[in-house]
Specification:
Layout: H1 2-53, H2 60-70, H3 78-84, H4 107-118, H5 125-139, E1 145-148, E2 155-159, H6 166-176, E3 183-187, H7 198-211, E4 216-218, H8 226-232, H9 234-241, H10 246-257, E5 263-266, E6 270-272, H11 283-288, H12 305-315, H13 320-334, H14 349-370, H15 383-390, H16 399-411, E7 413-414, E8 420-422, E9 430-432, H17 434-444, E10 448-451, E11 460-463, E12 468-471, E13 485-490, E14 496-501, H18 505-509, H19 512-533, H20 536-546, E15 553-555, H21 556-567, H22 573-580, E16 588-590, H23 591-603, H24 610-630, E17 637-638, H25 640-654, H26 660-670, E18 678-679, H27 680-693
Parallel strand pairs: 1-5, 2-3, 3-4, 6-10, 7-9, 10-12
Antiparallel strand pairs: 2-13, 5-6, 8-9, 11-12, 13-14, 15-16, 17-18
Helix pairs in contact: 1-19, 1-24, 2-25, 4-7, 5-7, 5-10, 9-10, 12-13, 19-23, 20-21, 24-27, 25-26
């Protein structure tokens, strides 16, 4: 009996160990594919940024159009934004049965919204724009780093990524209670994208923010970025729900996002940021950055001012010599050296501050005249601008340094190794080690960091000797049963208490094996096979490089090496091989037969020629993002003017000359239904025809 018990115990431990290994492999697949997609997004954005940086518009109209298309949301004047998003002129029809808002908001408005969204009702566009307008006004008065205390409430609840999963937010409020004077919440970014109810989450959070401005705190995440929203679904969601006023709502949301605070400090001891830190993170700098200047954190590098001045001079018809002279004059006029007699004594600090403000205002007006910006208007004073005005002794940072600070706290991830290095997996931010964490904690007298940004199977995870806590609140993120959501509660002792949950009812009916392995593993390998199929041509070439004798067979070891060299996902391919390669006689693989099986599996779902299907699988996300970038007004259609200006941008990079008539013919050839616009299916069909002709 004793031997039997030991044998059963050994079998059970082996079984559990194998389950855990399968779970970890499944998790690695999901995360590798997710991060590779983020890397593609950043590469695509860098490509467009490169085109913009090296594009010289031929006219003022062309410059303005390209600027509006690719720099959407930046430098929007207050009056222009309010005029564009004029909610007061919108009438709410009598037939409207959804929730109604009146300002200032009351707790009853928030609870009414929750009930309405549970009933799948939609808030009228007038109320949405009004809410965004009031939210923006409130956020503009907030500091970059919010400071809260556990003295004024029983505890502080911190929630991580929600990613458009409204059921998770409902469950958090059901378990923990609604925000109130005694119930403080911090929502740590990534409210939108991927899920189908991102806009409802924003509406609920913004409503509670206005009802309880001292108890609800919102941090910006890396998905509160309009360039990221183009790829991951939020832009599309808004336009589908609000077909008439969707553009106005998106414009306002873009502007609201850039005003979200960057971090939160609890009792000056716990720092809450969305992504992480780096060895150059400087909280003093973060406190003073004008955060609203960074509408998209992906867009960090700007054209050199000198290049822009040269282009402006050329547009105005001046030759290069005149432009050079004008550029020198502009440099002199933009950087005047005030005479000592002009500046008041530093002893009178108030008088000196007024003089500095007046001098700066004069130079701003000169800059506006230089770049032909008319109708200059006074900008409302905000918290960050007041900080920068009063702290005259503060160092002056470059825009690149400020951008790097924001990029790091929104995109970075912790790593177990010491040091700090570039985050090549995501394509943005950095990896920071326990030594970097210890240095920041010691420098600012902190106890630990709370961050989000990464999905964790249990909803939370400690690392760096329990000094970094990751909290993730979107349950079933990759697949039903893939992970729990969690939130953390902190009392005056700052000891974290966790609450875990799964919002999807189906997840509770699954067995442990189904929830952790079978169903999730199946979904992961299906996504991985699609990824492999999308790189069929490159894989075939890599396999042939190992098949020196042309036998059509390679070893399984070479198979694993070749697959990693093409996909670069960092996966344990030898361990995954039994799930991907069904038959391998004598330890060798007939690779062409294996590639044909992959193609057959995908073709059974999509009745398209195999080689073309491969290309579309590989490029569909990029093509859809490019389409949305070109479709500046988010109408779902590319107009002639949008196509024309984008073609001018591409042709300048590729050195292809095409007349206006030629571009018109090109548009007509893509516009298959002859309605004067190009929809996404026509865009994809044109891509398919070009590929076939090649």
């Amino acid at each position: 009996a004793f031997k039997a018990a030991v044998l059963i115990q050994r079998w059970y431990r082996r079984y559990v160990a194998r389950l855990e290994m399968r779970r970890r492999c499944t998790w690695r697949i999901f995360q590798s594919i997710e991060y590779a997609c983020e890397q593609d997004q950043i590469k695509l954005h860098n490509f467009f940024s490169y085109l913009m940086d090296h594009f010289t518009p031929s006219s003022s109209k062309e410059r303005d159009f390209i600027s509006r298309m690719f720099v959407s949301g930046e430098s929007v004047k207050e009056a222009e934004l309010e005029k564009y998003c004029d909610y007061e002129s919108m009438e709410v029809p009598g037939s409207y049965i959804g929730p109604r808002l009146s300002f200032p908001l009351l707790p009853d408005h928030a609870t009414a919204l929750l009930e309405a969204f549970k009933q799948k009702q939609q808030l009228h566009a007038r109320y949405v724009l009004n809410l965004l307008h009031e939210t923006r006004k409130h956020l503009k008065q907030l500091p970059n780093i919010s400071h809260i205390s556990t003295c004024y409430s029983e505890e502080v609840t911190v929630c991580g990524d929600l990613h458009g999963q409204l059921d998770d937010l409902f469950l958090i409020f059901y378990k923990n209670g609604l925000p109130s004077p005694s119930k403080t919440y911090v929502f740590n970014g990534d409210f939108v994208d991927r899920g189908k109810q991102s806009l409802e989450i924003l509406i609920v959070l913004f409503t509670f923010l206005l009802v309880y401005p001292n108890e609800v705190h919102l941090n910006r995440g890396n998905h509160e970025d309009h360039m990221v929203n183009l790829r991951y679904g939020f832009t599309k969601e808004v336009m589908q729900k609000y077909k008439v006023h969707g553009r106005k709502i998106l414009k306002m949301i873009q502007n609201v996002f850039c005003w979200l605070p960057l971090a939160t400090l609890i009792d000056e001891k716990v720092l809450i940021i969305h992504g992480g830190i780096s060895d150059t993170t400087d909280l003093d700098m973060l406190e003073k950055i004008q955060r609203h200047k960074f509408t998209s954190v992906l867009r960090g590098k700007k054209r050199k001012e000198s290049n822009r001045n040269v282009e402006i001079q050329e547009i105005n018809g001046e030759d290069k010599a005149e432009a050079s002279s004008a550029e020198q004059d502009a440099a002199i006029s933009l950087c005047p050296q005030p005479r000592a007699a002009q500046a008041p004594s530093m002893a009178n600090r108030l008088e000196f501050s007024r003089w500095v403000r007046q001098t700066v205002q004069e130079q701003i007006e000169r800059c506006r005249r230089l770049v032909d910006v008319s109708e200059s208007e006074e900008e409302e004073l905000t918290y960050s601008s007041l900080v920068s005005m009063t702290d005259l002794d503060a160092p002056c940072w470059t825009r690149q340094e400020e951008w790097k600070q924001i990029l790091d706290i929104l995109w970075s991830d912790p790593m177990p190794q010491e040091g700090c290095r570039e985050n090549t997996v995501r394509g943005g931010g950095c990896y920071f080690g326990p030594d970097v964490t210890a240095k920041i904690l010691e420098k600012y007298h902190l106890q630990f960091l709370i961050r989000s940004h990464e999905c964790k199977q249990e909803g939370y995870e400690f690392c760096h000797n329990r000094k970094v806590l990751t909290i993730f609140s979107a349950s079933n993120y990759y697949e039903i049963g893939s992970n729990r959501g969690a939130y953390v509660k902190l009392g005056p002792d700052l000891v974290p208490h966790f609450v875990q949950y799964q919002a999807n009812k189906t997840a509770h009916t699954l067995t442990m094996t189904q929830r952790q392995i079978s169903r999730v593993e199946e979904s992961a390998f299906r996504a991985l096979r699609e990824k492999l199929f999308a790189h069929t041509s490159a894989l075939s070439s890599a396999f042939k490089a190992y098949d020196k004798d042309g036998t059509g067979r390679i070893t399984l070891s070479n198979w694993a090496t070749a697959v990693e060299s093409v996909l670069r996902l960092g996966l344990p391919w030898r361990m995954l091989r039994p799930q991907l390669v069904r038959s391998a006689a004598d330890g060798a693989l007939e690779y062409q037969s294996w590639l044909d099986d992959l193609a057959m599996e995908q073709r059974s779902r999509e009745h398209i020629q195999s080689g073309l299907l491969e290309v579309i699988y590989r490029n569909r996300s990029n093509l859809e993002t490019i389409f949305r970038i070109i479709d500046r007004d988010h109408s779902g259609l590319i107009s002639f003017e949008e196509f024309y200006q984008t073609w001018k941008l591409f042709s300048s990079h590729m050195n292809i000359e095409l007349t206006d008539d030629g571009i018109s013919d090109l548009v007509r050839s893509i516009d298959f239904n002859k309605d004067g616009n190009i929809d996404f299916n026509e865009f994809l069909e044109a891509f398919r025809l070009v590929k076939q002709s090649q």
